[in-house]
Amino acid sequence: MSLVILISGRGSNMQAILEAGVPVSAVISNRPDAAGLEIAARHGVKTAVVEHRSFADRESFDAALARQIDLHAPVAVALAGFMRILTPGFVARYAGRLVNIHPSLLPAYTGLDTHGRALAAGVKLHGCTVHFVTAELDHGPIIAQAAVPVLQGDTPDSLAARVLAQEHVVYPRALRWLLAGRLRIVDGRVRLDGATGADAALVSPDDD
Ligand code: GAR
Fold first, then answer.
1. What is the predicted pLDDT for the residue at 203?
2. Handedness of CA 144, 150, 151, 153 (dihedral sign)
3. Lower CB density within 10 Å: C or N end of the chain?
4. Is 139 annotated in the active site?
5. Cα separation of 126 and 54, whole Å?
6. Active-site residue, from 43, 52, 72, 102
7. Which regions of the chain are under pLDDT 50?
8. Helix extents (H) in 2-142
9. pLDDT value at position 195?
10. Would you state the pLDDT for residue 199?
11. What is the reported pLDDT for 152?
């Protein structure tokens, strides 16, 4: 009952997941210089690199990535700052067990530069979202969100730092729910079985 985590860089979400004690069998990066690889190794977790630049197209990269993932027979696959668009075939292979964290309150601000765009729009609340991955980028059923107030004088970096602190709280929690088999997708929305207290605050009111 463990996860494979996919990263591309710093790996702070991956580190939060490991430090929360969520079982992880391997960390795979598409970049050999991803700082998170060393952090994973320090935690005694197996690492691998599947370098996207070595492949002619997305299909062949995703096929190699899937082979590497399947060596570990994970219950679920968590994207943690994995900055590659995945093919519909890859997404279908892991349907219902492929999750991502995105630095905005989806469905607002899909894509990149979420913090700068939130500041430019003048929103008063920003945050992060853990969601199931579907073929449409940053659009899958929402598992958990955390909201962060936007403060006077915020810069993209200061706002990103406060959102990231919340990412490190919600992602391990959502992954525990997933590994415990508590998440169901009903009519495109996520139901959390047995939601109470702090858990209930992160899900829609009718799941309480
Ligand atoms: C995180 O803020 C994550 O939400 C974001 O990249 C950062 C990775 O940081 N992901 C995306 O933008 C995906 N669309 P980390 O490597 O320190 O976890």
1. 45
2. positive
3. N
4. no
5. 37
6. 102
7. 203-208
8. 12-19, 35-42, 58-70, 88-93, 114-121
9. 81
10. 65
11. 97
The answer to whether the beta carbons of residues 23 and 4 sit under 8 Å apart is no
Task: Specify the pLDDT at position 205.
Answer: 36
For the Cβ of 106 lying below 6 angstroms from any atom of ligand 1, the answer is no
Per-residue pLDDT tens digits for 148-189: 999 999 999 999 999 999 999 999 999 999 999 999 999 999
Q: pLDDT for 67-81, tens place per residue?
A: 999 999 999 999 999
Residue closest by Cα to atom 8 of ligand 1: 81
Domains of the chain: 1-94 (3.40.50.170), 100-208 (3.40.50.170)
Peptide bond into 107 cis (omega under 30): yes
Q: Is 32 exposed, middle or buried (0-12, 13-18, 19+ CB in 10 A)?
A: exposed
Single-letter code of the amino acid located at 102: H
Question: Which residue has the least CA distance to atom 16 on ligand 1?
Answer: 11
Instruction: Look at strands 24-29 and 3-7 and give their pairing.
Output: parallel
Tally of residues, the chain: 208
Cα 180 to Cα 66: distance, rounded to the nearest angstrom: 23
Distance 130 CA to ligand 1 centre (A): 11
The three-class DSSP label of residue 192 is strand
